[in-house]
Amino acid sequence: MEVVIKALSAIAPTYPFDAVQDQRAPFITYQYSETPIRTKDGIAGYEGTMSVSVYATSLMAAEALANRVVEAVDGRKFGTLTLYYND
Hints:
5 strands; 3-stranded mixed sheet; 26% helix; alpha+beta
């Protein structure tokens, strides 16, 4: 996860969802959750979901920031993780 956060931090300051207080825009927050993929033989791996929120001073700036985030992570490998934009 650290490499993903580093990639996002290169775009704008990036924080865990609950760590932002009085931060000036633009900035990015994220949440990550993981669930195991279970098989008859045990856990085969994990599937995760990362929610990213962008904050900016205008709608146009927020859309531009969101587009930069999607371009930086969609379909790219970060170590063993491959991220795909969903919504």
